[in-house]
Design brief:
Strand content: 5-15%
Shape: extended
Helix content: 55-70%
Number of strands: 3
């Protein structure tokens, strides 16, 4: 067994510290609505209006979509474009950084679809075992 974890281990291990800036990025990307918004914008491969996103993302509230889009814009993943029309038209599209993050979220989405039945079966097995009365040891 190797006792020296190798070159770069200290830097890698530092990512698990609470003061590592990458933690805030992971926390942002781990939000389910962030995953869905990035995935939707990437899948459509064009800017989308707020109402389009809202219709596509079943279950998201207007407030949550607004908060998610603002956070993604703040993080530099989404670009908000306002067109000077009456009423104003607003579109959201991915930045280059957002396209890259969208690849990751799309991979997570594809993996989830591919393995959903396995996960659901494992949950059912676990729940069935947990529901059984404990048996005394002999």
């Amino acid at each position: 067994m190797e006792t020296n974890p190798g070159e770069g281990f200290a830097e890698w291990a530092a990512t698990y510290r609470r003061d590592c800036p990458s933690r805030t990025v992971v926390e942002a990307l781990a939000n389910k609505w962030v995953l869905y918004v990035l995935g939707a914008l990437r899948r459509h491969d064009r800017p989308m209006r707020f109402s389009e996103l809202r219709r596509l993302l079943d279950g998201i509230t207007q407030k949550m979509l607004t908060q998610t889009l603002r956070a993604l814009e703040r993080d530099g993943l989404v670009r908000r474009t306002v067109y000077p029309t009456v009423p104003p038209r607003v579109e959201y599209g991915l930045t280059d950084l957002g396209v890259e993050a969208g690849r990751l979220t799309s991979a997570i989405g594809a993996w989830s679809v591919e393995h959903a039945q396995h996960i659901l079966a494992a949950r059912q097995t676990f729940d069935d075992q947990a529901a059984m009365a404990p048996q005394p040891l002999r």
